[in-house]
Task: inverse folding
């Protein structure tokens, strides 16, 4: 099993969720986060006081996947979250040791 | 205002035999308008100014600013009844009033001031005494101890507001007798509050992290709400200063409105030229600059003059804000000096110009007998310089005194945590927690 973590632009969330649903992904966890990469922050001006906002709002997606789904999911996210502009985000893939569905007690790939 | 306008109102009324004057000399129309104005001007402080300022600070300090405005309202109101009204308006000398009206002594519902009951006049003036120290809060926001703020506001109301108000608006005040035009408080309210905030900002030193930590306004929606209340309330502030329900009050409201709109547009245009974008905070700040600047002039200028005054207010106050913040690096946190102080100064001077009856469409009502452009401008400059200088010196001394007695600033840890929790054991928002 793999855990896939994607950092994406907030306005791309709907597109990514739909793309993942289309390939059969059953669930995900979404968090609003802030961070920075190559994309510079932006400046805000208040009565002449200029503030640089370094940490930009992003969305963090966490998806647990069966091994055979990983490539398709990475591909779906990479396509649907892409704008071609700097700041589109990143996808990380981790090994996932165990998964348990609390309601039924199922574990492993069955529970993903 | 006061005697000058009051006399002109009386003259007008004596020329109109049918005027509705009650048999005891009280005009019910005037009184009704003044009662309305009392509510409008108190509304400027609570909640207008409180919300305007509250939105401009960081979330961790929002309650402290609301609290400061609220507490000042309460304490100055009590002081007004106890002795401040007497020190300000009871007959005295050229520099301070007497003590004959302490605890409103001798003032009954039948006592009159011009064509309105004296108690109505006193309540109207009370609302001015409240908003002036509340304006100063912006200079030391986000770092001053609550106890120090209270003590300072009490002392400042006695040592700065009361004497200056007496100089300018009491019949025996030395600036009043020289013919200073300050219709509704360019010197009394805006120059005193603005320069006091500047001195406080310098004495307290900048907020920790000023210049390298972002200190963005936490809720501009709140600020715009408060700004709208200030605009409406200002109709009572300036329109009420006619002390009568007549065309002078109507004209004061029109020029106030024109200047507010012109100041807002002017500030926005400056932003568009300089930054390519017009901001919401910019347009409301320009509006306040237009309002503060027209205040001393509202009873003597016409709509054409008000248009120019508003446009100049936006331009000058915009630049003053930038100079203070970017060149002088003074942390007058909510820009009280560049908006109110500078606005009050240029407004008081421009009142001396646009009062002239010889400026075509930009004419005002004309100078008082024996005055001309030069002599009036001289008096206006004297008023500006004396009020500003007196305020700077006395405010500095009072701050040093308060520093000795209770200390001025919270410590760095409390400042970081925010005044809401460290000074009041509360927080303004509890969102996002389960």
Result:
């Amino acid at each position: 099993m793999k855990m896939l973590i994607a950092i994406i632009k907030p306005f791309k969330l709907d597109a990514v969720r739909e793309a993942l649903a289309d390939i059969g992904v059953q669930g995900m966890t979404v968090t609003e986060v802030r961070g920075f990469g190559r994309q510079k922050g932006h400046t805000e001006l208040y009565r002449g006081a200029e503030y640089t906002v370094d940490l930009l709002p992003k969305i963090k997606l966490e998806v647990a996947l069966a091994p055979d789904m990983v490539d398709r999911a990475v591909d779906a996210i990479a396509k649907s979250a892409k704008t071609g502009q700097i700041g589109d985000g990143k996808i990380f893939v981790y090994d996932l040791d165990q998964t348990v569905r609390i309601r039924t007690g199922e574990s492993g790939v069955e529970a993903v | 205002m006061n005697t000058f306008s009051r006399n002109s109102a009386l003259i007008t009324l004596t020329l109109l035999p049918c005027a509705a004057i009650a048999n005891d000399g009280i005009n019910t129309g005037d009184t009704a308008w003044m009662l309305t104005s009392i509510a409008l001007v108190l509304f400027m402080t609570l909640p207008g100014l409180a919300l305007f300022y509250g939105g401009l600070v960081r979330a961790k300090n929002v309650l402290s600013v609301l609290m400061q405005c609220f507490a000042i309202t309460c304490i100055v109101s009590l002081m007004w009844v106890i002795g401040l009204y007497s020190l300000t308006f009871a007959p005295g000398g050229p520099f301070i009033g007497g003590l004959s009206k302490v605890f409103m002594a001798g003032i009954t519902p039948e006592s009159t001031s011009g064509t309105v009951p004296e108690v109505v006049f006193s309540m109207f003036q009370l609302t001015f005494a409240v908003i002036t120290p509340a304006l100063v809060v912006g200079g030391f926001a986000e770092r001053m101890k609550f106890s120090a703020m209270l003590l300072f506001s009490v002392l400042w109301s006695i040592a700065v507001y009361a004497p200056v108000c007496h100089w300018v608006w009491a019949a025996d005040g030395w600036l009043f007798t020289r013919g200073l035009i300050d219709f509704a408080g360019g010197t009394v309210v805006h120059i005193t509050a603005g320069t006091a905030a500047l001195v406080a900002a310098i004495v307290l030193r900048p907020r920790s992290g000023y210049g390298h930590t972002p200190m963005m306004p936490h809720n501009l929606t709140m600020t715009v709400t408060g700004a709208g209340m200030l605009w409406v309330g200002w109709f009572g502030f300036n329109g009420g200063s006619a002390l009568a329900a007549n065309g002078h009050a109507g004209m004061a409201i029109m020029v106030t409105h024109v200047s507010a709109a012109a100041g807002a547009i002017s500030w926005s245009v400056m932003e568009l030229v300089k930054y390519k974008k017009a901001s919401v905070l910019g347009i409301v700040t320009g509006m306040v600059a237009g309002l503060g600047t027209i205040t001393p002039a509202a009873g003597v200028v016409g709509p054409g003059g008000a248009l120019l005054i508003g446009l100049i207010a936006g331009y000058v106050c915009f630049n003053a804000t930038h100079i203070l913040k970017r060149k002088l690096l003074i942390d007058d946190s909510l820009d009280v000096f560049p908006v109110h102080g500078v606005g009050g100064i240029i407004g008081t001077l421009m009142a001396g110009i646009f009062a002239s009856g010889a400026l075509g469409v930009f004419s005002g009502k004309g100078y008082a007998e024996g005055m001309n452009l030069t002599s009036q401008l001289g008096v206006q400059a004297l008023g500006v310089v004396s009020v500003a200088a007196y305020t700077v010196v006395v405010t500095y001394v009072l701050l040093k005194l308060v520093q000795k007695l209770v200390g001025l600033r919270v410590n760095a840890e409390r400042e970081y945590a925010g005044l809401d929790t460290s000074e009041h054991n509360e927080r303004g928002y509890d969102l996002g927690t389960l």
Remarks:
- Chain A has a mean pLDDT of 92.
- Chain A has two helices and six strands.
